[in-house]
Input
Amino acid sequence: MDLKKNLENCRGKTLLVIGDVICDRYLFSRPGRLSREAPVMILEYEGEEIIPGGAANVALNLSELGANVFLAGWIGDDTQGKTVKKVLADRSISPEGIWEIQGHPTVLKTRILAGGQNQTVKQQVLRLDQGQNPPKTGRGFEKIKETIGSLLNKVDGVVFSDYGYGTVYPALVGEVIKLRNQKEFLLAGDSRQNLGYYQNFDLLTPNEVEAGDFAKTGSLEKMGQKIKKKLKPEALVITRGGRGMSLFEGSDRAIHIPPAGFTPVADVSGAGDTVISALMMGRLGGATWLEGAYLASFAAAVVVRKSGTAVASPQEILSFARGKEAGEDDN
Output
């Protein structure tokens, strides 16, 4: 595969991301001293950052790879939701499909990171999750469905990013599948809990735990075979963390894609979002699913070297693939 040509070919594609919009909050600190109140370390606050996560991170990854992106999901009417919406708007991601729920909090994941002054990357020491599924009101979810219907005639691909916070439900998936009969587009799904919703998709990207839970087996080959038989995706990619990923396509045999080099891992947050984004863009740029999996492996290797939920630019991917330091001039 000509990686550079593929990354150029996928630029300008239009994608719709449907799923759970999450606010990722990072608190940065350095170790202070032991507390006299309890046997715990006191961390000294240095700063914080808010980054869109979940489906919003998929949207950011697609945008970084050159796509025009629409996002459909929900946020609360709070500071976190407004901040996420602003960051997305600054990155030219359309908020047209985002439903703001009055009186309901945005899903918030707070990660506390700590490290000494000589450490270039701080490590995550604690994560606190806040938020719950919104009330299922017909008006609100009808609005999301109507928005999706109005956008589908513009898109080359649709990605469901389902973190289990109530945006995605069977009738909504069915509506998108029905609308695909009227206009051809690439359809992909990544689900934490509801893999069974996604039948006859072009691409599914569960991690190994999610695939095992659905297939009720710990054998990788049997996971792939059962998911392929039951859900009938064109391509199934099971992500395996530090062991790379496995592609099931035309046959029941897995093709194993090793991790891209011996990468020093800083943070794996959002790596799965990068994988599905790179796979979709690679395919839309003319790659086979196998070639797209190698592209996704390079992209994931770039983001896990960064602290926090991150994205990989085409330049960083090319530099990494060519064995250079990420960010080095490619000329």
In short: The first strand starts at residue 14 and ends at 19.
